[in-house]
Structures are given as structure tokens and as C-alpha cells.
Design brief:
It contains six helices and 14 strands. The chain is of the alpha+beta class. The chain has three domains: 75 residues; 116 residues, Immunoglobulin-like, CATH 2.60.40; 90 residues, Immunoglobulin-like, CATH 2.60.40.420. The model has no long low-confidence stretch (mean pLDDT 87).
């Protein structure tokens, strides 16, 4: 929140600072008056103009201050829809659907016109306006990436929008900001801003199907993946898994994290996640596979790590 990377986030920070200063000045004034009243009482009774204090301090002063702060915040909030957005530079449109407790992310493939499905990670080009359409598959969620934009609710049956233009490259953590169940606190995502040419290369790579596992361990892992019916919930384009119940895993190893920001993407974390998901994220709609032996878990982790 204190290190904005977009004009909109900078405006929100400015509004927050001004309102905080205004509240602090009012609080300080009230405390000063209280201190004077206590001291005067200790020094003995004095004649006070009660009408002046009630009307001036209780009506005029708060009316003037609150009206000024309301007018300022309203004018600056209206500007959030246009701050720093260059409509001529080609807008990127992304769809994000909240679920319990992860994020489905969809891009349009510029080559084929089809959809590119990802999960828990949004990539955007620096210097280009971005519109993210927000909806939900179940309960109300709220999309919030403090360094980029304000909170926007995700409501069943509706599509809301958040618009921004990243000013610099970086990895920005987001969070569901509306309580949505047991694992609400563990429903994070990352927005990664990269150079425009890097974004184009990344999007083209994400549009490709998964490469067949190259080594024997990963091949064995693919076999375990099918035997354990992981493909009943997860999509891996190119190798026969087409379900959309759970996150798309086609290029899962290219992401910053797994489990909606819960673990870094590494071989050992894949293994820990598969074996102990109900311990790591209780209530997630996936069973733990601790019944698998070490060899099967190692092979499955190797297969998932090969999906780049």
C-alpha cells in the first residue's frame, strides 16, 4: 500500500494520507480542548459561553471539516477510473474468477482466439492499460492488489472490473479481501508486471500444450497422475486432462507459487502439497494423498515439476 506501482494506487495512498492527517488534527484538537477543560476545572469554575461551544465546536467545526474531506475524497476517487491510463496503447483484457480458495485466470490467445487458462497468477505488461473482469464461482470474494489498485468485490452473477497500468516491473502480492470461508487468509495471488516483449513471449508459451514427460521418473509420475484420477479435477492441456473443477496445471511449474500463494514452486513442495494438502490448507477441495508410497510421490512431483 505504501509503495504504489500505478497512478490509481498512488491516488488511493494520497487519499489515505490526507484523511489520516485530517482525522489526526481533529483528534489532537479534541484532546487539547479536553486538557484545557480539565485544567480549568482544577483551577475553579469559570463562566463559559455554552451556546458558542455547542454550535461552534459541535456543529460548525465538524460540518466544515467533514465537508472539505468529503469533497476532496470524492473528487480524487472519481479520477481513479482514468488516472495514468493511456487508452491508445492497446488494452489487455484478463478474466479472474474467485473460487474457494484459489483464482482462475483466463487470457485470450491472440493467435488462435481461444482461451488460455491459468491459476493464482496474473502477468501484465508494463506501460499498457489492463482491464481485469472479476466474478466468482461460489461465494463473494474481493480482489485486492494494494500496490496496483483498490479492492473490488467479486459477486455471484455479476462481472465487475478493475483497471490499472503498471508503471514498473515487479512482483505484487494480492489477497482476497472479503471473508469467504475457512481458508480465506490463504487465498493469495501474485500479479507480475514484465516488459511488453517478455509478456508476449510468456503468453505465447502459456498458449502451448504441456510437453510430454521426457524422463522415466516424470513418465511414471504421469502414470500416477492418471491412476489417482487427478485428471478428474485438473486440466493439463496436451496430455488428456480436461477438467476445470480444480486449477489448471498445464504450466504449473512456471508459476511463482502453488496453493494460491501457499508454497513456493519447487519439487519438494509439490510432494508436500500432494501428500499433506489437508494439513497445509484444511478444507481445500482436494484430498491428501499420504497413502501413496515415497516412490509414487517422488514421481508425481517430478511430473508436476516438468510442466513448465
Amino acid at each position: 500500500m505504501l509503495d504504489p506501482a500505478t497512478a490509481s494506487a498512488a491516488t488511493i495512498l494520497e487519499i489515505g494520507i490526507v484523511l489520516t492527517i485530517g482525522a489526526a488534527l481533529i483528534f489532537g484538537g479534541v484532546m487539547w480542548l479536553l486538557m484545557r477543560a480539565v485544567r480549568r476545572r482544577a483551577a475553579g469554575p469559570r463562566q463559559l459561553n455554552a451556546t458558542l461551544w455547542v454550535v461552534g465546536g459541535g456543529v460548525v467545526f465538524p460540518a466544515v471539516v467533514m465537508t472539505a474531506l468529503l469533497a476532496y475524497s470524492t473528487l480524487r476517487t472519481v479520477q481513479l477510473t482514468t488516472d495514468g491510463v493511456d487508452e491508445t496503447s492497446g488494452r489487455i483484457v484478463i478474466s479472474v474468477t474467485g473460487a474457494m480458495w484459489w483464482w482462475e485466470v483466463r487470457y485470450r490467445d491472440p493467435a488462435s482466439g481461444g482461451e488460455i487458462l491459468l491459476a493464482n497468477e496474473v502477468r501484465v505488461p508494463v506501460g499498457r492499460p489492463v482491464t481485469i473482469g472479476l466474478t466468482t464461482a461460489d461465494v463473494i470474494h474481493s480482489f485486492w492488489v494494494p500496490a496496483l489498485a483498490g479492492k473490488v468485490d467479486m459477486i455471484p452473477g455479476r462481472v465487475n472490473q478493475v483497471r490499472f497500468e503498471a508503471a514498473r516491473a515487479g512482483v505484487y502480492r494480492g489477497q482476497c479481501a472479503e471473508y469467504c470461508g475457512d481458508q480465506h487468509a490463504k487465498m493469495a495471488l501474485y500479479v507480475i508486471a514484465v516488459a511488453p516483449d517478455e509478456f508476449e513471449r510468456w503468453l505465447a508459451a502459456q498458449a502451448q500444450p504441456a510437453s510430454p514427460p521426457a524422463d522415466s521418473l516424470a513418465q511414471r509420475g504421469h502414470q500416477v497422475f492418471v491412476e489417482q484420477r487427478c485428471n478428474a479435477c485438473h486440466t493439463v492441456r496436451g496430455i488428456g486432462a480436461v477438467s476445470r473443477i480444480g486449477p489448471d496445471l498445464t504450466h504449473v511449474a512456471s508459476r511463482v507459487s502453488i496453493g494460491a500463494g501457499e508454497l513456493p514452486t519447487r519439487g519438494e513442495t509439490f510432494r508436500a502439497w500432494v501428500a499433506n494438502i489437508q494439513h497445509i490448507k484444511p478444507g481445500a477441495r482436494m484430498p491428501s494423498f499420504a497413502h501413496l508410497d515415497d516412490g509414487a510421490l517422488q514421481a508425481l512431483a517430478a511430473f508436476l515439476e516438468s510442466l513448465k
